[in-house]
C-alpha cells in the first residue's frame, strides 16, 4: 500500500540581510537576529549609533507562525526610552520602530511579549538596519490579464510604482518589489479579479461613471467627511449586491 500525506505549511522569510543568532551586542548592521522568546523574558541587544542615522527595527514573528505578540523599546545611553512599538494590525500582529537617532552613543533595543507570557511556537526574526518595505498596495485589486500600475505604500517615498499583469487562476498574487536587493519583509497580496476593476478618479462632487455590472472600484477616503460618488446604469428588476472591503 502507498500512503501520501501533506505536512502543515511553514512560512519562511528570504531577503538579502545577513542572518545570525540573537546576541546581546551588535558590531555591525544591517543584520537579522534569530531567537526564541519564552514566558516573561526580556531580550536586549545594544549597539553604537551616530546622530542623524536612520534605522528600522522590525520583528517578524506572527507573520512566520509564531505566537509571540512582540513589543519593542529603544533606549538611549542613559537608559531613557526614546520610542516603543506595540503589535500592529498593519504588520499582522508584529511590530516596527523607525527612527532618526538623536545623538552619537550607545543604544539598547528591548524585545518582550505583550503580556509577558510568550508560548510556543515562540521563534522570531529581529531585523535591524535600513531597508525598503511595503505594507500596502494600491489599487488592492487588479483585473486578470490586464497590466496595472500599482503604488507601493511603505517607506519608499519616490519612484514607488510597479506594473503587474496577473495571469493564472490564483485569487491573490504578491505585489512585485521595486528592487529585491534593497527590500525586506512580506509582499502585500493583490486580489486578482475576473471582471473589470476601476480606480477612483478624484473629481470633486461629480459622479464617476462605472463601466457596467459586474465591476470593482478601488478608492481612498483621505479626509474627514469625504464622499466618493459613482454612477451605474441599471434596469428594473436587476438584482444587485454591493460589498465593501476595507
- Total helices: the number is 0
The structural class is: mainly beta
Rg on CA atoms, Å: 22 Å
Q: Kindly estimate the percentage of residues that lie in beta strands according to DSSP.
A: 35-45%
Overall outline: globular
Number of strands: 19
Mean pLDDT: 92
Helix content: under 10%
Query: Mind summarizing the main beta sheet?
Result: 5 strands, mixed
Order of strands, widest sheet: 1-2-9-4-7
Report low-confidence residues grouped into runs of 5 or more.
none
What is the string of helix and strand elements?
A: EEEEEEEEEEEEEEEEEEE
Structure, described:
With 246 residues, the protein is mostly beta strands. The chain has no helices and 19 strands. The strands form six sheets. The chain has a five-stranded mixed beta sheet, with no helix packed on it. A four-stranded antiparallel beta sheet has the order 3-8-5-6, with no helix packed on it. A hairpin with a 6-residue loop joins strand 12 and strand 13. The protein is globular and about 70 Å long.
Keywords:
246 residues; mainly beta; 19 strands; 0% helix
What is the secondary structure topology, with strand pairs?
Layout: E1 19-21, E2 31-36, E3 43-49, E4 54-60, E5 70-75, E6 81-85, E7 95-100, E8 105-113, E9 123-129, E10 134-138, E11 141-143, E12 148-154, E13 161-164, E14 172-174, E15 189-193, E16 197-199, E17 208-209, E18 216-218, E19 230-231
In short:
By secondary structure, the chain is mainly beta. Helix content is 0%, strand content 38%.
Amino acid at each position: 500500500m502507498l500512503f501520501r500525506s501533506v505536512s502543515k505549511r511553514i512560512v519562511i522569510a528570504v531577503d538579502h540581510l545577513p542572518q545570525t543568532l540573537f546576541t546581546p551586542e551588535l558590531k555591525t548592521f544591517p543584520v537579522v537576529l534569530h531567537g526564541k522568546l519564552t514566558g516573561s523574558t526580556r531580550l536586549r541587544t545594544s549597539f553604537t549609533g551616530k546622530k542623524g542615522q536612520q534605522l528600522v527595527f522590525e520583528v517578524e514573528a506572527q507573520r512566520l507562525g509564531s505566537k509571540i505578540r512582540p513589543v519593542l523599546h529603544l533606549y538611549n545611553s542613559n537608559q531613557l526610552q526614546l520610542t516603543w512599538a506595540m503589535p500592529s494590525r498593519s504588520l499582522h500582529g508584529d511590530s516596527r520602530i523607525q527612527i532618526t537617532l538623536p545623538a552619537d552613543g550607545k543604544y539598547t533595543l528591548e524585545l518582550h511579549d505583550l503580556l509577558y507570557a510568550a508560548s510556543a511556537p515562540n521563534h522570531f526574526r529581529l531585523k535591524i538596519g535600513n531597508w525598503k518595505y511595503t505594507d500596502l498596495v494600491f489599487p488592492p485589486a487588479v483585473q486578470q490579464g490586464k497590466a496595472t500600475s500599482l503604488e507601493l505604500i511603505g517607506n519608499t517615498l519616490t519612484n514607488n510604482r510597479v506594473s503587474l499583469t496577473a495571469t493564472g487562476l490564483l485569487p491573490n498574487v504578491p505585489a512585485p518589489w521595486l528592487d529585491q536587493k534593497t527590500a525586506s519583509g512580506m509582499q502585500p497580496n493583490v486580489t486578482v479579479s475576473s471582471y473589470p476593476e476601476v480606480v477612483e478618479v478624484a473629481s470633486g462632487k461629480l459622479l464617476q461613471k462605472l463601466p457596467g455590472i459586474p465591476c470593482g472600484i478601488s478608492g481612498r477616503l483621505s479626509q474627514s467627511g469625504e464622499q466618493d460618488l459613482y454612477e451605474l446604469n441599471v434596469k428594473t428588476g436587476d438584482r444587485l449586491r454591493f460589498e465593501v472591503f476595507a
